[in-house]
Amino acid sequence: MEKKVSGSVINRLPRYYRHLTDLCDSGIERISSKELSRRMGVTASQIRQDLNCFGGFGQQGYGYNVEFLRTEIANILGLNRGYTAVMVGAGHMGRTFATNTKFESRGFKLIGIFDSDPAVVGTEIHGIKVSAYSEIGEFIKANKPKMAILTIPKDATKKVAEELIGMGITAFMNFSYTELAEKEGIIVENVHLSDSLMRLSYKISDKDDTADKERGVEL
Q: What are phi and psi of 113, to 5 degrees?
C-alpha cells in the first residue's frame, strides 16, 4: 500500500466486513454503493472514497460483487493470515470475552490463556486450559503468538506488558482500566467499555437538552 490510509477509514473497514458478511449469508451477490450506504448509514460518496483508497473494487453500472468485496476487505484487514494470540487474565471479563468472541473469523486464533490465581489455573475456558502465568515465557517461545489480550487489574498492566514485550509479543488488546502507549514496533488497541457508556450518556443527554429547548424548558 503506497499511500497512508487514515485511521477513520481503517475504523470503518470492520463495519463493511460485517455488513458484507450479512449480505453473503442472505444470498445477495451484488450491491450498489447507494444500497450499501442505506444499510450502513454512511453516504455512498464516503463508501466510494473509502474503497478507492485500496483500488475501488466496483464496476460502473454494476456496483460491487459482495463476495469479492468481502474477500478483498478481509485481505486488507489481514483476517486470512492466521495470527495467534494469548490471553492474560482468566477472571470474569477474560472468561466472557474468550467464550463469546469468534476469534478465527476476526483474524486471530486464541491458543493460550494464563493467570496467576491458583483458583482458576487448571480450569477450562472455551476448550482451552488455563495455565499458570509463570509458564507463559516458555509457551510464547515455543508458539510465537503475535498478540496478547490483557484482561487484568490496571495496577499490573504495564508491568505485564513490558514482560510480554521482552518475550516477543508485539501487539496488545488491552481491556484493563489503564492506557498502554504504543512504542516503536509495538501495536496497542486500548478498549474502554466505560467510554462507550459515557458517549451514550452524552448522546441521550444532548437529545434531552434539545427536546427541552424545543419545548421552551429552561436548562
A: -130, 135
